[in-house]
Design goal:
The chain has 238 residues and is mainly α. The protein has ten helices and no strands. The longest helix has 31 residues, at 166-196. The N and C termini lie far apart (62 Å).
């Protein structure tokens, strides 16, 4: 994948991001643990932070660039949900491993990311309408409810008691990280439910053709079918 760079391909862009971010993070981690590469680490640390931002939305771009109804129709909101989940989980893990007196920024990141993630999910499900049903029902719906409960419980714990209690900080951070992971898995499972039901695949395509909103081959096919039906009716009348 690194033999070329194609800006219109999410997989190509993501591969380059993953390679660059992995290298920067690896150099930074090696310097923190062993002290090696001091000069390279001064560049790698900010680079890892900057590259982590687009990397957090990489999987959302890949999912949205498919024909799976619930993924494709969420292409405008799913990256924001995944970015917020990444921020929440990063903050939660940092809260769990950082002494309380130094974990203020991590607590704010964890709680803020969790709040944006939960709000983004609600907005995404509402905007999807009927296509968002797989996110609310079936195995994906159950997993999504568990994820929201974990995220909310973790955010409340971190916001209310992580500053004073080490066990609360560790538990709250773990809950937030688990909630973000469960939410991504729920979105992943919802795609399979969406693709397996013709209600979410054939139905929306048929409505767009009937409403005149479809373009390209589907619209031409609809015109040909209607034209053929009209000719048959004319010949029958004659």
């Amino acid at each position: 994948m690194l033999r070329m760079f194609k800006v219109t391909s999410p997989m190509s862009v993501g591969s380059w991001l993953l390679a660059a971010s992995g290298m920067a993070t690896g150099v930074s981690a090696a310097n923190s643990v062993t002290g090696v590469f001091p000069r390279a680490a001064r560049v790698a640390r900010p680079a890892a932070g900057v590259l982590g931002l687009p990397l957090s939305t990489y999987t959302a771009a890949l999912l949205s660039n498919t024909a799976i109804p619930v993924w494709h129709e969420a292409r405008r909101s799913l990256p924001f949900v995944f970015a917020a989940g990444a921020a929440a989980s990063a903050g939660g893990v940092a809260v769990a491993f950082t002494p309380e007196r130094h974990a203020g920024p991590a607590r704010r990141l964890a709680v803020g990311g969790a709040a944006v993630q939960l709000a983004g999910l609600q907005l995404m499900e509402h905007s999807l309408g009927e296509l968002g049903e797989p996110l609310r029902h079936g195995p994906a719906g159950v997993l999504g409810k568990v994820a929201k409960g974990l995220t909310l419980a973790g955010a409340v714990a971190v916001g209310a008691g992580a500053r004073r209690s080490r066990p609360v900080a560790v538990g709250g951070g773990a809950l937030i990280a688990a909630g973000a992971l469960a939410e991504r898995w729920a979105v992943f499972r919802a795609g399979f439910q969406s693709a397996a039901d013709p209600k979410y695949t054939v139905g929306p395509q048929r409505r767009r053709i009937e409403e005149g909103g479809a373009r390209g081959g589907s619209r031409r096919t609809a015109r040909l079918v209607s034209g053929s039906a009209g000719h048959r009716m004319l010949f029958s009348a004659c």
